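agent> fetching stored inputs for the S-adenosylmethionine docking request
agent> found them:
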Amino acid sequence: MAYCHWFSSNFRRSRTLKDVITKHRRPRGNEPSRFIVDATSNITLPNAFPVLDLACGYGRNSVFLSKRGHEVVAADYCREMLMDGWGTSSSFIHSVHLDACLPLPFANATFSAVVVVHFYAIGLFRNIRDLVVPGGYIFYESISARGGNANELPAPGVAQEELLPGYTFLKLRERLVEGSKSCATLRLIARRDF
Ligand SMILES: C[S@@+](CC[C@H](N)C(=O)[O-])C[C@H]1O[C@@H](n2cnc3c(N)ncnc32)[C@H](O)[C@@H]1O
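agent> prediction call returned; pasting tokens
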């Protein structure tokens, strides 16, 4: 059974979904991730396939991508976040309630890109790798290591381990958290090989 780092370290200790929502309060601004803005502006995604924004939260990146003309599947574990109203801002956004720690309910080669920002679960890259069409992309940005949340970060090397062979890394910036050998901040752009 898939084991979810985030779920285990944060959710199970919590009693209710309210705790999850409190932890991930609605961001003050709705600006999309700068990394996603920059990464996607230099890349043409394969046409005719939607983008998956996994663990989309309050949808700042989904809204941005939909404004860029992409059909977006915005998926999150937290129903309240999905039902907060932002998803109806565009007919290009389709909300899906799911647990990203489990095998995902999508056929292989469904998405032109999978975007994951500020979320990690053990096995994440293995779980999403087949969802991308050949020539499509994975964009990943971890949380920063500030605020004592380093245990929510991936282990160093995990993206390479789970995506190679089969993907080419166009960008891979991994930084070990000071004083830790097992947690690293990570940003990556990877393209699925043909
Ligand atoms: C820090 S927020 C990031 C939200 C969004 N990606 C952003 O950049 O604004 C982390 C998100 O992960 C979601 N999440 C946590 N565990 C999850 C799981 N097992 N499956 C799906 N989503 C999950 C939370 O509900 C929350 O919306």
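agent> quick read of the result: Residues 1-16 have pLDDT under 50 and may be disordered.
agent> awaiting further instructions
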